[in-house]
Amino acid sequence: VQLQASGGGSVQSGGSLILSCVISGFTSDDYAIGWFRQAAGKEREGVSCIATSDGATYYADSVKGRFTISRDSAKKTVYLQMDSLKPEDTAVYYCSIWIYWGQGTLVTVSS
Predict the structure, then answer these.
(1) I want to staple 102 with a disulfide (CB 3.0 to 4.6 A). Which of 5, 12, 15, 62 is the partner?
(2) What is the DSSP letter of 4?
(3) Which of 4, 23, 38, 34 is nearest to 107 (CA)?
């Protein structure tokens, strides 16, 4: 199983980024995939997740209303649209299914 995250970069406060996570080698069609982030010196935290069975989504309070998770089942890709970015969103973002983790993509938001 491989999860390939991409889309990170540097933006100014208020800007937007779209993260992508391409999934390969995972045979189940019924799973939940999550985005997590870890800022320097802090613990990893959950940001958002989506269930493939019914499309149910979850957002951490800190990103609710600013981030949107979605998926393209044909492309086996999950996206995280991040709008109105704040400096406190600066972190390495990871996608994960069950015990599998992507390599992370760095998001830096400057004030």
Answers:
(1) 5
(2) E
(3) 38
Summarised one tens digit per residue, pLDDT across range 45-70 is: 999 999 988 999 999 999 999 999 99
Beta strands 9-12 and 17-24 are: unpaired
Q: What is the pLDDT of residues 83-109, one digit of tens each?
A: 999 999 999 999 999 999 999 999 999
**The two structure tokens encoding residue 13:** 């406060």
Cα 57 from Cα 79, distance rounded (Å): 12
Q: How far apart are CA 103 and CA 95, in angstroms?
A: 8
Q: Quote the CA–CA distance of 109 and 111 in Å, as a whole number.
A: 7
